């Protein structure tokens, strides 16, 4: 892949069986954006951490986000940062406005529904416990993202059997190629 990659783990960080962890192990030059408190993330702090990570990239990176980090990307996009990214690969966006969301949203509400100023893909599951299919579709439409629905895949994480996830990696690879013809 000929692009800088920043991975953005979701709530509780991505564990050892998560596809992000597998992909980072295969590509040691990829960087997981650190966060101070994975169990109780604060939007403003996390947006600042993402902005700092983007600033350290040589070029415009691709953001590879999972779960709550998809909302982080949308929040960062509206933060008035002068930095640029090449695109965002957004997997299983969490609906922080749903009553079933497991923690306090800590500033992530309301969910930004403005068009993202960069190309993006939303990958969604039909039985994700953190976002209803219609909400995932609404996020993708509002953000101007291509939507890829992969059927019943849970939260598309290690707990739902998405460890190495070669199909997802192929989607990301194609997205990178489309950005860098």
UniProtKB/TrEMBL annotation:
<protein>
    <submittedName>
        <fullName>Alpha/beta hydrolase</fullName>
    </submittedName>
</protein>
<dbReference type="GO" id="GO:0016787">
    <property type="term" value="F:hydrolase activity"/>
</dbReference>
<dbReference type="InterPro" id="IPR029058">
    <property type="entry name" value="AB_hydrolase_fold"/>
</dbReference>
<dbReference type="InterPro" id="IPR010662">
    <property type="entry name" value="RBBP9/YdeN"/>
</dbReference>
<keyword id="KW-0378">Hydrolase</keyword>
<dbReference type="Pfam" id="PF06821">
    <property type="entry name" value="Ser_hydrolase"/>
</dbReference>
């Amino acid at each position: 892949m000929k692009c800088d990659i920043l991975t953005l783990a979701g709530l509780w960080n991505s564990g050892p069986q998560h596809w992000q962890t597998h992909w980072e192990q295969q590509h040691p030059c990829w960087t997981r954006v650190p966060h101070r408190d994975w169990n109780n993330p604060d939007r403003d702090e996390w947006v600042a951490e993402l902005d700092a990570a983007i600033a350290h990239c040589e070029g415009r990176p691709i953001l590879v986000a999972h779960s709550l980090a998809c909302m982080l990307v949308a929040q960062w996009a509206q933060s008035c940062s002068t930095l640029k990214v090449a695109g965002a690969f957004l997997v299983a966006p969490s609906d922080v406005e749903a009553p079933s969301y497991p923690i306090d949203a800590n500033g992530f509400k309301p969910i930004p529904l403005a068009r993202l100023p960069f190309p993006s893909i939303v990958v969604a599951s039909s039985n994700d416990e953190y976002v209803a299919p219609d909400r995932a579709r609404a996020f993708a439409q509002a953000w101007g993202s291509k939507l890829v629905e992969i059927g019943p895949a849970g939260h598309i994480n290690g707990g739902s059997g998405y460890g190495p996830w070669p199909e997802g990696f192929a989607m990301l690879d194609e997205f990178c190629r489309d950005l860098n013809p």
